[in-house]
Amino acid sequence: MKPMKLFCLPYLIQKHILDSMDLQSIFLLSLCSKRMKNCIASRQTVRFNKIKYFHFQIRSMICIEAVYFDGTVEVIFEMYPTTSAVKRLCISSLIGLSYTKRAPKSTLTWRALIQHSKPFKILFGNEKEYRVDMFSRYDGDSIPRLHNIRSSCVWSYPTTTGKTVDSFCSESPNQDFFQVLSAINGQLDENSKLYGMKTIDVGEDNSGLVLDIIRRFTGTHAFLRTSELSNSDIIEFVNRWKSNEAFESLEVLVVRFNHQFNLSNRIEIENSIGIRELSSENNAPEFHYKRRYNLDPNDFFSHSFVSNSYVVRDHDQRVASVLLNEETFSIGIWNLTENEFLEKCLKS
What we know:
The chain is of the alpha/beta class. The chain has a domain at 233-348. Helix content is 28%, strand content 33%. The protein contains ten helices and 19 strands. The strands form three sheets. The chain has a 15-stranded mixed β-sheet with strand order 5-4-3-2-1-6-7-9-11-12-13-19-18-17-14. Strands 8-10 form a two-stranded parallel sheet. The chain has a two-stranded antiparallel ribbon with strand order 15-16. A hairpin with a 4-residue loop joins strand 2 (62-68) and strand 3. The longest helix has 18 residues, at 107-124. It starts with 10 loop residues before the first helix and ends with a helix. This is F-box domain-containing protein.
């Protein structure tokens, strides 16, 4: 029996054959040649347009999934490492078949991801949304460098490095959501792309690193944790926002203290940033904000804080509520001028 030559068949027959194949088989077939990749791309446009985003799950194994607009999920690529006293193997599954290759620790896993992600994106396109959920039990330097990621969650146990985070962010800047759950050793570059992420959630208590983020952040939402933040750091941050020197896009900043913040110099801070207090004629406003905890932008928790204290930005009179206590420093920017803000807070 002679093998069937796909290119010799009419267009509609080619399309029907490809429509009957799962995405694992489609992806493997696309690796055969550039001609085959172009053939698949042109005949599977309708199918590919039904894909909402691609989910990269990177742990001790790799799994790449296509998530459709109707909520269904289809696996495209899988690779599982196995360990024995003699050797370490990575097992990859495509169209129901498995192949193995010897590899030290996670090296092959990351190389395989990078090698397969290039033809993957050529086939499906860069305009799709890509999400990365990564947990590594090995050296933080193993974080793969991927392109065009919309949102990511990185956890490299026990630690990662500032250089590694910079490298990862440089390949996919301007993400909507970037979360780092592991400790970060060392500092970020002063031009790190992390500062430009729309939303960042950094579970790190490296005071120097957190301070760098506070000074250079250009996104909208920042959620941080630190062991130390000085009075001068808070004063500098608020005054730079007031003068419109920085943080023009900021909507909310929340910094949690690992240890109780010393409030003995609170009056000095308030005087230095020009804090204003609502009078007894006003209701204490409750500032509401949403916080994501994973890659799904629709999966978030609603939070709020109440404060009578606020500051006003000089050039447009925008108001920001300020909360400073022993546990947290929070600032939330209202889309209101001071007059509108005071009117909103008037007791009825």
